[in-house]
Write a structure and sequence with these properties.
The complex is a heterodimer. By secondary structure, chain A is mainly alpha-helical. Chain A has 7 helices and no strands. Classes of the chains: A mainly alpha, B mainly alpha. At the A-B interface, helix 3 and helix 7 of A face helix 1 and helix 4 of B.
Chain lengths: 198, 251
């Protein structure tokens, strides 16, 4: 049988398409798309149930859950009772539980300090060379290692973290009470280090 | 009407064509769906938030906004309150933030477009992975370099299992920027680098004396893990191999 030889350009074209197909299918080539991914077989991918932080078609305001009754408190959540101005009550309400200052607790304090405090107060608590201070985005961030701050009681610092102070907002919704104490213990080590370094 | 040979040829032809269609469909479906279909999904978000600016340049930790990821199965999208912690003052007249201010004033949520989506029959628990000291980057990629976030990993089942079977090849160790708690004091000089190498500890699961839970178990074992919490602090679990039984994710 006499099969005619295919032209060279056809061979090159077929080869290129094959290589491209292999690269795409193996995930070597990807591209960005604003379109949602195609679902070839969407079997049970989308079930009629409430999923956290996803809209719902069931209620008219697209919320998955109903609003809780005003004043509802979630289980195992402590609500900080004081307002920002109740400075005088800070020490009597926030009694230092005196957790053991073990390496684990201090490490936890460091971890939470780095997450929630360091963006403004820097990793050394001196509020000196972090990007937010350098760019001048926020005015008057105090140095937490200065003597005035070091002289504050633990309960007072707990009050500042929980209720906020001046321009600093409350972090009661983000940092649990035990983490706040851990942060305070870690801050004390930073203050001691700064005093010793001077 | 037609000859036998023609009839046979038609039957064979149709059969071959069907086979080709099935094979092509399977190849395309399993390859594309599993490895590339979801990667690179980069939807336009209602607020042009830049992770590159906030995490990469301003060094705001992942957990500052996605707080609660240590405790929760899903990583929380921050409330408008979180944005306004800073933007009450910073760029407080920017038109790009109009929607955030409106959300903050009215109490209506911003409708961010979800990027990472698992099928509803598989469950992923963020807190379990964060406590195993797995950095966000392992799955989400270098978010701190993304101006607009796109999906980095395929989130396919084979992708999950690859990592559960050989985590040391895939996992980025905890970095200070991600706020993953490792239980030990770290240097904070290198924010964007891992301070330790992720090493799974094979002794995590003591296979001696462990009986299978169900038959067939698909490798299900009772592992001896540290307590869920110690004194109220979310305790980091030791870095170990991931479980491979079906009911880990499909329950």
């Amino acid at each position: 049988m006499n099969i005619p030889r295919p032209p060279i350009w056809l061979l090159i074209l077929v080869g290129a398409v094959a290589i491209l197909a292999v690269l795409i299918l193996s995930g070597r080539i990807t591209w960005f798309s604003t379109d949602p991914p195609v679902e070839f077989v969407p079997n049970m991918d989308h079930q009629f149930k409430a999923i956290p932080q996803s809209g719902s078609s069931f209620f008219s305001n697209k919320s998955s859950l109903r609003e809780p009754i005003p004043g509802t408190v979630a289980r195992n959540v402590s609500v900080y009772p004081l307002a920002q101005g109740d400075v005088d009550l800070a020490d009597s309400v926030n009694v230092d539980p005196n957790y053991e200052k073990s390496e684990f607790v201090i490490a936890r304090g460091q971890n939470r300090f780095n997450v929630f405090c360091a963006p403004c107060h820097n990793y050394n608590a001196k509020s000196d060379s972090n990007p937010i201070v350098k760019r001048g985005l926020w005015p008057g961030i105090p140095d937490l290692t200065r003597p005035e701050t070091a002289a504050l009681t633990n309960g007072r610092i707990f009050h500042i973290i929980s209720a906020g102070q001046n321009l600093m907002p409350s972090y009661a919704d983000k940092v649990s009470p035990i983490d706040r104490w851990a942060i305070i213990y870690y801050l004390r080590t930073l203050q001691q280090a700064a005093t010793a370094g001077e | 009407m037609f000859s036998r040979q023609f009839d046979l040829a038609v039957k064979l032809g149709v059969g071959a064509l069907g086979l080709v269609v099935v094979v092509v469909f399977c190849v395309v479906y399993f390859s594309v769906r599993n490895s590339v279909a979801d990667v690179g999904y980069r939807p336009t978000q209602p607020v042009p938030f830049s992770h590159k600016l906030h995490a990469g340049e301003l060094h705001v930790s992942c957990q500052y906004c996605h707080a609660g990821v240590e405790e929760s199965a899903h990583s929380p999208i921050p409330s408008s309150q979180t944005c306004m912690n800073c933007h009450l003052l910073v760029k407080n007249d920017s038109p790009k933030l109009a929607m955030v201010r409106e959300s903050y004033d009215k109490g209506t949520p911003i409708e961010w477009v979800r990027i990472h989506k698992l099928p509803d029959y598989s469950h992923f628990n963020h807190s379990r992975h964060i406590r195993a000291q797995i950095d966000c980057k392992s799955c989400h990629g270098p978010i701190e370099e993304m101006g607009v976030v796109s999906q980095f990993s395929s989130l396919s089942m084979s992708w999950c299992l690859d990592c559960h079977r050989s985590p040391d090849k895939h996992i980025v160790g905890a970095r200070p920027i991600s706020g993953v708690f490792t239980g030990k004091l770290e240097k904070v000089s290198n924010l964007l680098d891992s301070t330790f190498l992720f090493k799974p500890i094979p002794a995590q699961v003591d296979y001696a004396g462990v009986t299978d839970i169900v038959v067939p178990s698909f490798g299900a074992t009772e592992s001896k893990l540290p307590a869920h919490k110690i004194d109220g602090i979310p305790h980091p679990k030791y870095a170990g191999y991931g479980p491979e039984n079906c009911s880990t994710c499909h329950y």
